[in-house]
Amino acid sequence: MPKADRLRRLESPAEGLTLIEAESGERFSIGEAPQRVAPLSMTPAAPERVERERAVGKVVLLVLVLGYLGFVLLAPLGSLLLATWELGMAEVLKAVSEPLALDALATSGLLVLAAVGVNAVVGTFGAVALVRHRFFGRSFVNALCDLPLAVSPVMIGLAFILLVGRDGVMSPVLDAIGLKLVFTFWGMLLATLFVTLPYTVREVAYVLEEIGTDEEEAAITLGASPWQTFFRVTLPNVRVALGYGVLMAAARCLGEFGAVLVLGGSISGQTQTATTFIHDSIEERHLPAAYGMAVLLAVCSVVLLLSLEWMKQRQAAARHRSRSATEDEATP
């Protein structure tokens, strides 16, 4: 007799059988036959309970995240704006219009322009070298590009003083050519270039890895020289990433404090930047100048942030167009 028929007969009370036999060989009493429990998602009350738990979890998560961001980011800025307003806008504007404040702001602007220009060139060619070429020690150089993100800016300033200072390792060479770096604009620029190095390199390198080498190889096949390939193919493909990296480097340069303080010395009218001006004004209890310069830097940071978001959207659109073009070429 087939097993299915036997099981049906065993489950029939009309034949007086008290046991049933499962396919696994186990036997159960008729009243103790295992019941299949419906999954949680199949029970009538499950959807409502799951949706309620998700809603509660979403609210809790949003409260925690927004509360943390509000306390860490918005609350300090709000306190700064409130304190500045209480001092009086007329007094604050007068303080930031003083010659020393304008000199500090101009020094920061020059540092940003110089650092951005150097990073745009060095970062682009460095990214091309790391992504498009293979050489001995490439992994080591790649790791060195992230070194500024791991060390303290104050330590960087001290290290440069030990290198190019009065009794530094390179002091005989610098003295011979009559070049002084410590407590000068050029020393601050050197420290700023160090701390802003990774941003442009990493952004451009990421895009170069993603777009591949198909277009560049096609250009070389058609007879383009390496420089023509770079300026007509590679550079247009990475221009958005380059702009994004440059803006991040500018924001980092604008807010740099430790390295420029150690290497520049914060000499009023000479090596004092906007950030060191805030520090010195607080020490001198000149609060209107300190608060006013801080608000001015905050406004500049917000402008850079909005520019970064705009560049990010352009970068995402460029990547989407690149993927679409690749898929179109792959489609027969």
Structure, explained:
The protein has a two-stranded antiparallel sheet with strand order 1-2. It is an all-alpha fold. It folds into three domains: 30 residues, no CATH class; 38 residues; 236 residues, MetI-like (MetI-like fold, Orthogonal Bundle), CATH 1.10.3720. The N terminus is likely disordered. It is globular and about 70 Å long. Strand 1 and strand 2 form a beta hairpin. The protein is built from 14 helices and two strands.
Short description, anyone?
This protein has 332 residues and is mainly α. The chain is built from 14 helices and 2 strands, in the order αββααααααααααααα.
Main features:
332 residues, MetI-like fold, two-stranded antiparallel sheet, globular, disordered N terminus
Which architecture of the largest domain does the CATH hierarchy give at level 2?
Orthogonal Bundle
**Percentage of residues in DSSP E strands:** under 5%
Largest sheet properties: 2 strands, antiparallel
Radius of gyration: 33 Å
CATH superfamily of the largest domain: MetI-like
Question: Helix count, per DSSP?
Answer: 14
Q: What's the CATH topology label of the largest domain?
A: MetI-like fold
Number of strands: 2
User: Looking across the biggest beta sheet, what order are the strands in?
Assistant: 1-2
Mean pLDDT: 82
Count of all domains: 3
Distance between the termini: 59 Å
CATH class descriptor name of the largest domain: Mainly Alpha
The outline comes out as globular
Give the proportion of residues in helices.
over 70%
Structural class: mainly alpha
Low-confidence stretches: 1-19
**N-to-C SSE series?**
HEEHHHHHHHHHHHHH
